[in-house]
Write a structure and sequence with these properties.
heterodimer, A: mainly alpha, Rna Polymerase Sigma Factor, Chain: A, Arc Repressor Mutant, subunit A, 2 domains, B: mainly alpha, 4 helices, about 70% helix
């Protein structure tokens, strides 16, 4: 029978480092999926995921077991992604010149609400979204991702980010405005 | 009011499947980093031991100083003078043992 998360955590805290490996194997797909929402380069994504698991190992004694380990780990993942966004903020003022034809065609499909069908279309739509989100300030990107895309509540966002609920609301308002501006800039760039 | 284009865009983002691909043996890389962090640093251990030894020496010095200050019978000037006299006349009192 496989050991539960609680058993593995207990073993790690007792000094059995190897017991952490099954936890990494079990949760790394979810951590990778989350990291891919905030970073584009595979090397950066790997660095984020590695950082998450190193932090999780070092802070494991602070996990009180009141909520599932997965929730604790995902909160840690989002915070690590936010730190990554803040440290890479200098790259956000980019132009849209590197948009491919396929990505550009998705820009036209946005108002019609057409969904991607195959893997190529999914990748093109994902790349377009990433490029659009990359132009936003780190706080705005975080709010758009959590509030609009993952549909988390204001309370949940406040818990994850450590901001007050009113601050989340203010930042959401600014983030929507920044997103609208970025979309207009993208469309303008396309038709010039 | 929300922009319909933004709503469509967010809808598109929500509809994209999560990309859960993991590089081959990534967990081994993480575990190697964790283990390398756990390796004792020889200079760190040596430095910690030296600090501990230095602190012990300081504590012993303070204790010995305090003990000498408060427990020693040689505290009055008369006793000090008598001891000095005895030391000076020691060669004269040859027959007496020290």
């Amino acid at each position: 029978m496989d050991a539960t998360d609680a058993d593995l955590i207990k073993a790690v805290l007792a000094g059995d480092t190897a017991s952490f490996e099954p936890l990494v194997v079990k949760y790394q797909p979810r951590v990778f999926a989350t990291a891919r929402k905030y970073a584009r380069l595979e090397s950066e994504i790997e660095d984020i995921v590695q950082e998450v698991f190193l932090k999780a190992f070092n802070k494991l004694n602070t996990f009180r077991g009141e909520s599932p380990f997965e929730h604790w780990l995902m909160k840690l993942t989002v915070r690590t992604c936010y730190d990554f966004l803040r440290s890479h903020q200098r790259n956000r003022e980019q132009t849209f010149s590197d948009i491919t034809e396929q990505e550009s065609s998705w820009l036209e499909k946005i108002p019609s609400g057409i969904q991607p069908n195959d893997e190529h279309e999914v990748n093109a739509a994902r790349a377009l979204l990433q490029k659009l989100l990359e132009t936003l300030p780190s706080q705005s990107r975080m709010v758009i991702q959590l509030l609009e895309i993952e549909e988390k509540s204001l309370k949940e966002i406040a818990e994850i980010t450590g901001w007050s609920i009113s601050l989340v609301k203010v930042r959401a308002f600014r983030a929507r405005a920044a997103m609208r501006k970025a979309l207009e800039k993208l469309e303008k760039g396309k038709y010039l | 009011m929300k922009d319909p284009r933004l709503q469509r865009l967010n809808q598109l983002a929500r509809s994209l499947p999560a990309d859960e691909r993991v590089p081959y043996a990534f967990e081994k890389r993480v575990m190697a980093h964790i283990r390398s962090g756990l390796q004792p640093d020889a200079w760190g251990v040596w430095s910690r031991l030296m600090w501990r030894a230095a602190m012990t020496c300081v504590a012993i010095s303070i204790f010995a100083g305090a003990w000498a200050r408060f427990e020693s019978p040689v505290s009055s000037p008369e006793l000090l003078a008598a001891d000095l006299e005895e030391a000076v006349f020691a060669p004269v009192h040859e027959g007496e043992p020290w």
